Amino acid sequence: MKKRWLVVTPEYDVKIPITDEGEGPTESEADTFEIEAETRRDAISLGVKFMLKDANYRWCKEQRRDNRSPYTGVQAWEFDSRDDK
Fold first, then answer.
1. What is the DSSP string of 20-79?
2. 46 burial via Cβ count (<10 Å: 0-12, 13-18, 19+)
3. Which residue has the higher pLDDT, 40 or 64?
4. Residues 25-52, mean pLDDT to the nearest whole number
5. What is the tens place of the pLDDT at every residue in 54-67?
6. What is the mean pLDDT of residues 5-13?
7. Can you give the pLDDT at residue 85?
């Protein structure tokens, strides 16, 4: 039986370009989304695969650029069925 999971990446810094030279302040972000899977491991695996395909998720791109695994630090939390009420 599949469960709902919240997949969350660690925080990472993103530069907000506000000048023509691309300079600006740095903000911290984390990618989060909901996914259905049977186990926590499946949720993380499916989540990273989803992030690798979608250009809006920066975590995997940042990890790949630094030759690190995109799975590093990614967590999944099960939604409690009581949250639906």
1. TTS---EEEE--EEEEEESSHHHHHHHHHHHHHH-TT--HHHHHHHTT--TTTT-EEEEP
2. middle
3. 40
4. 92
5. 877 888 888 888 88
6. 92
7. 47
Question: How many angstroms separate the CA atoms of 64 and 34, rounded?
Answer: 23
**Burial of residue 47, with CB atoms counted within 10 A of its CB: 0-12 exposed, 13-18 middle, 19 or more buried:** buried
* Angle value at C-alpha 42, between 77 and 65, nearest 5 degrees: 90
Confidence bin at 82 (pLDDT 50/70/90): low
CB 2 within 8 Å of CB 36? yes
* Domain residue extents for the chain: 3-84
Q: Is 17 helix (H, G, I), strand (E, B) or coil?
A: coil
Q: How far apart are CA 78 and CA 84, in angstroms?
A: 12
